[in-house]
Structures are given as C-alpha cells and as structure tokens.
Amino acid sequence: MAAKENAGIEIGIYTLADIGPDPITGNALTAKERVKEIIQAAKLADEAGLDVFGVGEHHRLDYASSSPVVLLAAIAQITKQIRLTSTTSVLSTLDPVRLFEDFATLDLLSDGRAEILAGRGAFIESFPLFGYSTNDYDELFEEHMDLLLQLTQNETVTWSGKFRPSLWNAEIAPRPVQETLPIWIGVGGTPESAVRAGRFGVGMALAILGGNPRRFKPFVDLYRQAGIDAGHAPETLKVGVTGHAYIAKTTQQAKNEFYPYYSNYWGYVNRQRGMGTRMSRDDFEHMASPDTALFVGSPQQVVEKILTQYELFGHQRFLAQLDIGGQPFKNVAKGIEMLATEIAPIVRRETGK
User: Fold this and answer.
1) What is the domain-level CATH number for residue 258?
2) What pTM did the predictor assign?
3) Alpha helices, DSSP H, located in 154-289
4) How far apart are CA 254 and CA 251, in angstroms?
5) pLDDT tens digits, one per residue of 74-113
6) Which of 68, 186, 262, 328 lies most in the core, judged by the most C-beta atoms within 10 Å?
C-alpha cells in the first residue's frame, strides 16, 4: 500500500446513469443504450489508467442503474486494473447481507477490485419499493451499517437488530479476495454524517457539487476527530471528493460546451424534486468560477481546483462525474482521455510529494 500512497491520490470517474434528452438534438437514449455506454466508459477509463470507476443506484425510469453490482460485474470482465465501486448503494433500504454477498462476489470476479460506497440516497423511491418507512431514515442506515461492517470482518455472524431478522452463527459467503472489503460512506451536507463515518472507521466520500469547497473543511475535521476518538488509526481514515466535471482545451470552451448540458441536468433533477427552477448562464458562470467546486475548465484549471481542495482536505481520492445532462458519448470519452492524460499525471505528481 505504501508504494500506492507515494503515487499520489487516486483519480477516477463515476456515473449515476441518468437518462436525459440531449438538449441540442432532443434525442434520449434507451436504458439499454445508456448501460452499454457506461460499460464502454469504464473500459476507456481502465485503458487510460484511471484508478476508480463508480456506478450509482436509483429506482426511477429516468435512470438506468438500479443494481450497480450487476453493471460492475459486467465491467469487471472487460477491465484489468480499475477499482470498482458503487456511488452510492442506498444502504438504508438494502439488506446488508445481500449487499455484502453481491460485492464479495464482484470481488472474486474482479480479482480483488470491489468496494462499497454506502449512502442514504438523494431520492426516497426505494423506501416504499422495499417496504421501509422514511420515518426510520437515520435509524435504518445506522443499523444496516453496523451489520455490514460485521459482515466484512467475520465469516460467521451473530447479530440482532430492529429492522431485519436476527442472525445466529450465520455463514456469510463467499468471502472476498481482499482481506477486508473496503467500505465508504457518502456524505452530502450534514455534520452528523461526517461524524458517523468517522465513528464507524470507514472512508468518507464528500459530494461537493458547488459553492466554495472551504465550507466542507469542518466536515473533514469532524470526521477525522470522530475516527480518532473512536479508536481508529488516523491513516485508516480516508477522504474522497466527488464532483461534476467537464474538461476542454480552454476554460471558455469548456463552459460554452457544458452549459447547455449542465442547465439541462439541473432542469430535470429539480423537476424530479418538484422544483421548476432553471439555471441561467449567469448562474452557471458563477458556479464555474475559479474559487468554486465545479470542475469545469481547461486541464490547468481543473488541476488547480483539485490541488486547492487537496491543500484543504488532504484527501486520498477524487472522482469526477462526467456524463450528465444527456451529453453525447464522444464528449464523455474526450473527458476521460483528458482527465487521464492531462490532469491525473500532474495531480499524482504534486500529491505524491
């Protein structure tokens, strides 16, 4: 692991598999076409030398991935090096035993490249779908995380809780290739979530989608302090940053090309949440300004943003979401190539010092 750490931070990409119409052409992909593109993007990312590929979970017709592990299993067969993670698994409404066994199987298929990024999810469709109540939002997550961590540590588990049947000397199979399956918690905007990730001693993946990244510094401090207070070794407390990104030769070109898609993306995400707001070009220019967390610009601009955040957080991983808003695949492929060849080498060199 030491050699890897000296190589600087891990850099990768993730997708939520949104299916939006292209705002330029009006065309929308089918779920089948979207899934094929995601697998192709993962293959490109692996061949280009990126470190991590993530797939999200949503239970809606305007997303193509309700089962990240199935997509990641397909990806495992056509990739060699890249680590494979959910981004995120909605742990509150998943059975932890099933989740662990699925990802342990993925670990066998991928020769030890599987990880779980667990979160509470931005949408709540999965609660009625699987028979859970949103009144138990926090309690469910806490209990399921407690069980999931026991499953990663023990081949046989005895456990009892409130929301699922008890386990008595239950055999948890298969066991993964990795000694311990890596677990992360996705944290959006609450200090309680950061403290919880630290207390559990798992990685914390910060979703920083806009604004000044400095406002997330207290979360990182809370996470590390909670981890140390709970008795976890500081070097095991890993921080990841995830964010929206678009890369082009110049920052102006990146903004011009990305604006229609980003405005489109927030248009349909806001509609999904019952809000009718649209993003103006002025709003976008503000969101993409140099001191914000939106990774839109030339390779140099994106490098500067990543390194600024690294100075703030000292994080171990950066994941970019490149494929949002109904973009054609050629845009995504270009972004993967530029991230891997023009950004990753500089960031790894600077953070590996």
Assistant:
1) 3.20.20.30
2) 0.96
3) 191-200, 217-229, 251-272, 281-287
4) 5
5) 999 999 999 999 999 999 999 999 999 999 999 999 999 9
6) 68
